[in-house]
Design a protein that fits this description.
Helices cover 54% and strands 12% of the residues. The chain contains 15 helices and eleven strands. The strands form three sheets. It has a seven-stranded mixed sheet, sandwiched between helices. Strand 4, helix 2 and strand 5 form a beta-alpha-beta unit. Helix 11 packs antiparallel against helix 12 and helix 12 packs antiparallel against helix 13. The longest helix is centred in the C-terminal third of the chain and has 35 residues.
């Protein structure tokens, strides 16, 4: 059955203001956007947001979600919400202001309805609804669409969110622990019910810290994270658009081409070096907001193509005295890097555990030029880049060969 999600978004925060919990800021977006994106990553193809009023921040959040391709419907009342849910759909219920780690969403979505995600009745969890002598509701549950529609039709004056919870429990729902086990310590990904803006501070820190994900190449893995420590947290909490940053990284790389062609090798290298961290920050910001960087592959290809063009311009410029072999060497390096990228994708398709941390990448070649630039040995840098690229290609070919051989042995075993 298809998975839908019903997210409640009508309650205000407990500070006397009229701000909705769903509109609380969280890592450069709103709480609602993070709720929706977690539900989508768990498999939900249809999101219904139940609201009583539509303040500007909530309208903006829904518009951003829709522009990113997420199907989000706004329901202004219980009957409207029920009408937007198909009886054959499985519905992921998200309580007002509730947010949990992606693993919690995924585990619940993988269960069969009815199911309820719970927390143990421990000190510090009083904000969660008590549903028994030993459990509290973690704010997430799973129900079938037909049961939701039947509950909505019989609701009367009761609270829809709590009524759905009670009906789900009455149907002998599976009781799942948000902790994974019944341990007494709170895990880092425990659910949160946001009643105040401060309730999301710890979660925001975890989201930002966890966004420093795995990247290919030694520069992206070991150097870019160090650069990002300087101001990424502040940037992630603001409205910076990852796509604009990605576009800026391309502009820097494009600007290096005429500089290299005119013999300004140092300024060209500076622009290329700066473009890498900017592109990395753009990807990481998209990860923080649990969305995809628009046209990510095209942005990456455009930036690296510009870097390749700058390298060829360097080779042509070095051949001004008739040494045309430098231009051919530059073209060779670019061609090998294109072939290497193809081999690396093949290796990953065959075995996603394949790891090659010191593989040549576009940024790796750029940063490798820095010591040669200080020594004013641009020709030696090009030769070293060629050796590095060819060696990485040979190793990647070997990985593909080994992966194919392993699959053949497994098929005949």
């Amino acid at each position: 059955m298809a998975l839908a999600a019903l997210i409640f978004a009508s309650q205000t925060i407990d500070d006397g203001s009229d701000m909705l919990r769903a509109c609380l800021p969280l890592a450069g977006a709103t709480l609602l956007e993070h709720q929706v994106r977690r539900a989508v990553r768990a498999g939900a193809t249809h999101i219904v947001v139940l609201v009583e009023r539509l303040p500007a921040p909530l309208i903006g959040a829904v518009d951003r979600l829709r522009r990113s391709g997420t199907r989000v419907d706004i329901a202004r009342g219980v009957p409207d919400a029920a009408d937007r849910i198909h009886p054959d759909e499985t519905v992921l219920i998200v309580a007002d202001g509730c947010i949990a780690g992606a693993e919690v969403f995924n585990r619940l979505a993988a269960s069969s309805p009815p199911a309820v995600m719970t927390l143990p009745d421990l000190p510090g969890l009083e904000d969660f609804e008590l549903i028994g002598a030993q459990h509290r509701w973690a704010g997430l549950s799973l129900i079938d669409g037909a049961r939701l529609q039947a509950t909505a039709a019989q609701l009367g004056e009761w609270d829809f969110e709590l009524t759905l919870l009670r009906r789900t429990l009455a149907d002998e729902a599976a009781i799942l622990s948000a902790f994974g086990t019944s341990g007494e310590t709170l895990p880092s990904e425990r659910p949160v019910v946001a009643r105040h803006a401060s309730d999301l501070a710890t979660l925001e820190q975890r989201i930002i810290a966890g966004s420093a994900g795995f990247r290919d190449g030694w520069v992206a893995r070991y150097i870019f994270p160090l650069i990002e420590k300087i101001g990424f947290t502040r940037l992630a909490r603001g409205p910076a658009d990852p796509w604009r940053l990605g576009g800026a990284s391309i502009m820097l790389a494009v600007g290096a081409i005429p500089l290299a062609a005119m013999g300004g090798f140092w300024p060209a290298l500076v622009l290329l070096v700066a473009s890498g961290p900017l592109a990395s920050v753009a990807r990481r910001l998209a990860d923080v907001r649990m969305t995809r960087l628009r046209h990510e592959q095209r942005l990456s290809r455009a930036r690296l193509s510009a870097a390749g063009a700058a390298l060829i311009a360097l080779g042509i410029r070095r051949g001004d005295d008739g040494q045309w072999g430098w231009a051919l060497l530059a073209v060779l390096i670019v061609g090998v890097m294109v072939a290497l990228a193809s081999e690396w994708r093949t290796a990953h398709r065959l075995d996603n555990r394949t790891d090659m941390p010191f593989m040549a990448t576009g940024d790796g070649l750029i940063w490798m030029f820095i010591p040669f630039a200080f020594a004013a040995s641009w020709g030696a840098g090009m030769m070293a880049a060629a050796v590095y690229a060819v060696t990485s290609f040979v190793v990647a070919q070997r990985l593909v060969h080994d992966a194919i051989a392993a699959k053949m042995r497994a098929g005949t075993g």
